[in-house]
Design brief:
single chain; 331 residues; Rossmann fold; 3 domains; five-stranded mixed beta sheet; three-stranded antiparallel beta sheet; 8 strands; binds adenosine-5'-triphosphate; binds magnesium ion
Length: 331
């Protein structure tokens, strides 16, 4: 079963920790979205999950049957034309197609190579898993639907450096979708997409077979796709845990369900925390008042004022003991 498993991940770019003890598991059919303020480490965590960056601590496990093909070359580091980029990125799939053709020829010619049938079966499974039969059709369709129709014809020879950052971003996204990885990792995928391209992406992501992990600032996109939200800003959840005496949240707060459910849960947590805080402050004021009154007891009442000799000492000691006990309880 395809899955992304992060165990106790910690990472920092400087002496200040950025990610601490992150644990997360995204299983088949789950679409997890990381939420948090700018700079909280969403991209960094996605880069760690896609094994583009090594964590300082912890383990990344990518489970599945065919996970080795999911790395797509980073377009910003690539020199050449759009065609070169596509050829390089899709090379693993084209290699499978060539090997499958060879294996088919061998079998049809009756060549009895060792393990020939077993090899044929393996390649056939890969051809189906990555939908390589329809690679060229999918390539044309995905490019067109992501607003890159220009690259379906002679425009494919355009150099990447002559393309806008938005076009390059869409090309890398197109390749990622065409590669059909069992675990799909997307960072801000709707950047540079128009409404129609976003609709296509929503449709594609929602049909994904495997595990999806992403980050986005596009609330409508998150609402339309995510099945689980991971909040990287755990301050509120920890304040609430402290106020209620529950255990602290480390790394991420998981909220299963749609984005709107997460928003409702967070609003309710904020309200609960505010109410608890107000109640605790009111109790604190009462205790302070009660404690101040204890000092009056220490000074004694009418009986201490009117007592003499041993009786005066008795009343004074008793008043002091009562006052001390009350103050201790209040503290
Ligand atoms: N290569 C790097 N070297 C040093 N610091 C970096 C590097 N990359 C990112 N950072 C810093 O690490 C922090 C987390 O960055 P990251 O890009 O992971 O955040 P993010 O949550 O994805 O932000 P955004 O919402 O803006 O996309 C930021 O303060 C950023 O400036
Ligand atoms: Mg980011």
């Amino acid at each position: 079963m395809p899955a992304i498993i992060l165990e106790n991940i910690s990472f920092s770019y400087s002496s200040k920790p950025l990610l601490e003890n992150i644990n997360l598991q995204v299983g088949e059919g789950e679409r997890a979205c990381l939420i948090g303020p700018n700079g909280c480490g969403k991209t960094t965590l996605l880069r760690i999950a896609s094994q583009d960056l090594l964590p300082e601590q912890g383990k990344v496990k990518i489970e599945g049957t065919n996970t080795e093909f999911f790395q797509v070359p980073a377009i910003e580091d690539f020199r050449g034309s759009a065609r070169d980029y596509l050829e390089c990125a899709l090379c693993p799939l084209r290699n499978i197609a060539t090997q499958f053709q060879d294996a088919t020829n061998q079998i049809s010619q009756g060549v009895s190579a060792v393990h020939a049938e077993q090899r044929y079966d393996q390649l056939l499974a890969l051809m189906s898993c990555f939908d390589i039969w329809s690679l060229e059709t999918r390539l044309t369709e995905v490019l067109a639907r992501l607003g890159l129709r220009v690259l379906t014809g002679s425009g494919r020879d355009r150099s990447l450096s002559s393309m806008s950052p938005g076009e390059r971003g869409r090309l890398q996204l197109a390749v990622t979708l065409i590669m059909k990885p069992e675990v799909l990792i997307l960072d801000e995928p709707t950047n540079h997409l128009d409404a129609r391209a976003i609709d296509f992406l929503v449709e594609t992501v929602n049909k994904w077979r495997g595990a999806v992990m992403m980050s986005s600032h596009d609330r409508a996109f998150i609402e339309d796709t995510a099945t689980v939200i991971y909040d990287m800003d755990v301050a509120l959840w920890n304040e609430l845990a402290k106020a209620t005496g529950s255990s602290q949240v480390t790394g991420l707060y998981r909220c299963a369900g749609a984005y709107s459910k997460y928003l409702a849960e967070k609003t309710s947590a904020r309200r609960k925390h505010r109410d608890l805080h107000a109640a605790q402050q009111a109790e604190k004021r009462l205790l302070r008042k009660h404690r101040q009154e204890a000092s009056k007891i220490a000074r004694g009442g009418v009986r201490l004022a009117s007592a003499e000799g041993k009786a005066k000492k008795f009343f004074a000691d008793r008043a002091a003991a009562t006052a001390q006990r009350r103050m201790r309880n209040d503290d």
